[in-house]
Every structure is written in structure tokens, then in C-alpha cells.
Amino acid sequence: MDTIKLILPTEEWLDQVWAYRREMLEADSSMDGCGPLGRADTPEQWLADVRAIRNPATVPEGKVQATLFLSVRESDGKLVGMIDVRHSLNEHLRQFGGNIGYSVRPSERRKGYAKEQLRLALGYCKKTLGLDRVLITCQPHNEGSRRTILSAGGVYENTVHEPDRNVDLQRYWITLS
């Protein structure tokens, strides 16, 4: 696997973000960890929404402060994944969403990028946010995500049903050492 780094999205990345969106839509893939990418009308709108939720003064009502990172392959600067770190949990996130959501573009899966971006994000959670543990959820059929969570030390707690999306979600806690 090539080395990746987590970076904050800026205008210079918008073409790659929109190509990522297109690839995810064409593959009918869930855009977990992409912020509002699935419902954004323009790349600029997406970036403005991502910036608003990152700033504690502009977090939309009902949401929590979050930092979305682009996972960029260092060898060629290609956007291979996204990971969204929520700084705290509200009731909905405590039940269904967790602290972290992530995805890897379909053409870059099974190369270790999910595990690496999660490892890097967990370091951010510990060092920058001061979290002692994080919650991550995934659907039972998502074997790749489950393995990624387990590789990071995830401990299964239970499975819940999220009525809004009509999906079951497995809940895992990762203690940050």
C-alpha cells in the first residue's frame, strides 16, 4: 500500500472530490464519512458545509462539531478516501452514527487505505481532541468495514436498528491508548 496522509479539504481539491462523488454514485456505494457529499449540488456547497460543521460557531443545529479529512495518496496526490471525525456524540450519534465515518473510493478498495486512514484519524482523536474512546458503526454485511474496525481494536457492543434508514448497525468501541 502506498502511504496516505489526511488533509483538510480546500478549493484545490474540489475537482477530485467531485470525481470521488461521481465514482461513489456510479458504484451505488454508501458515502459514509463524506459529510454532505451525497446531497450537495455543487462542490463549493459541499466545501462550505464541511467548513461550517468544523467551526464550533457555525455548527448547524442538531449536529456536532466534526472534522472531515481527505485521505490522499502521497505518491501521486490522488484522493483515495474520506474520513469524518465527530468531536462528540449527540443522542443520534451515540445510538447509530458514532464518532467516525469513512469510505474509500471503489477503485481503491482492498489496498489497506481504510485501515490506514482510520489509524491516522484515531491519532487525531487522541492527540488533538483528547478522546479516550470512540464509537464506530457499520452494517452487518459490510465485512471490509467490520475487519477495519476490528483491526483498530474495535470491541463489539451490540447491533441496533436505525429506523430512519431502515438498516441494522453493529456498534464497536475503540479505546485509545
Strand order of the largest sheet: 1-2-3-4
Number of strands: 7
Low-confidence stretches: none
Helix content: 25-40%
Which series of helices and strands comes N to C?
EHHEEHEHEHEE
Query: How many individual helices?
Result: 5
How would you characterize the overall build of this protein?
The chain is an alpha+beta fold and 177 residues long. It has five helices and seven strands; from the N terminus they run E-H-H-E-E-H-E-H-E-H-E-E. A four-stranded antiparallel sheet has the order 1-2-3-4, with helices on both faces. It has a three-stranded antiparallel sheet with strand order 5-7-6, sandwiched between helices. Strand 6 (155-162) and strand 7 (167-175) form a beta hairpin. The longest helix has 15 residues, at 113-127. The radius of gyration is 15 Å and the shape is globular. The model has no long low-confidence stretch (mean pLDDT 96).
